[in-house]
Amino acid sequence: MKRNILVIDDDSVLQDLLRDYFHDHLFVTTSALTGRDGIEILGNVLGTSCDLVVLDIMLPDLDGFETLRQIRTLSKVPVIMLTARSDETDRIIGLEMGADDYMHKPFNPRELLARIKAVLRRTTTPLTGPTAVPSDERFHAGPFIIDPVTCKLFRDGNEIPLSGVEFDIIRELALFPGRARSRDHLLNIARGRDFEAFDRSIDVHISRIRKKIERHPARPEYIKTVWGKGYAWGDDTPDTL
């Protein structure tokens, strides 16, 4: 099955290279040279048929961060960000805003393709494990309802907005209450790859999730730190609905 990739980058040479390379691997590429064009294409042309966005930070109109912010008002489509800058702050900001992965320029197209496939796999790989809930069933976790089909989290009937990565993390923790999950494990679940990763990025995502679901993020009830091991959900057991 072919997948649709939207590449937002003002480098026309790179656009041509990626279009040809992805075509050989059964990916259909749509190109946008500016942030505004990418947003318009995503909203009016590709819509729900877009499987992933590759987004450069340095664009001639809107920068990549503002483009990502506007994309998130339209869609939860996975986003991999690109940058030629070496400043680690860019990576943190991108992850905080809901990016699913991050790559430095110049890069090997083969690695980008591998990361794209990995991010797409995490949305379709079935959950496994002794207490796993079937992947298509809603389940309770404390006061929350988690819906794996729509990738949505609810409390008291109200949706709590989450990025794709945030949803994957909270689902993984909630499915195995009381069991510590390491940062490396959560990176593999949320980002779906075994490449060398920026370990503290999981802490960034956990902090953002806590701000959204905890009454007192500094004293979390649901996502608890297990010192030396990672993070764990509270002791309640998930129940399917």
SSE diagram, text form:
Blueprint (H helix, E strand, L loop, with lengths): L2 E6 L3 H12 L3 E6 L2 H12 L5 E5 L7 H11 L4 E5 L4 H9 L4 E4 L4 H13 L17 E3 L2 E4 L4 E4 L2 E3 L3 H12 L7 H9 L9 H13 L9 E4 L3 E4 L5 E2 L1
Parallel strand pairs: 1-2, 1-3, 3-4, 4-5
Antiparallel strand pairs: 6-7, 6-12, 7-8, 8-9, 10-11
Helix pairs in contact: 2-3, 6-7, 6-8
Q: What does this molecule look like?
A:
The chain is of the alpha/beta class. The chain folds into 2 domains: 3-121, 3-Layer(aba) Sandwich (Rossmann fold); 139-240, Winged helix-like DNA-binding domain superfamily/Winged helix DNA-binding domain (Arc Repressor Mutant, subunit A), CATH 1.10.10. Helix content is 38%, strand content 21%. It has helices at 12-23, 35-46, 64-74, 88-96, 109-121, 164-175, 183-191, 201-213; strands spanning 3-8, 27-32, 52-56, 79-83, 101-104, 139-141, 144-147, 152-155, 158-160, 223-226, 230-233, 239-240. Strands 2-1-3-4-5 form a 5-stranded parallel β-sheet, sandwiched between helices. The chain has a 5-stranded antiparallel β-sheet with strand order 9-8-7-6-12, covered by helices on one side.
The gist of it:
The protein is of the alpha/beta class and 241 residues long. The chain has helices spanning 12-23, 35-46, 64-74, 88-96, 109-121, 164-175, 183-191, 201-213; strands spanning 3-8, 27-32, 52-56, 79-83, 101-104, 139-141, 144-147, 152-155, 158-160, 223-226, 230-233, 239-240. It folds into two domains: 3-121, Rossmann fold (3-Layer(aba) Sandwich); 139-240, Orthogonal Bundle (Arc Repressor Mutant, subunit A), CATH 1.10.10.10.
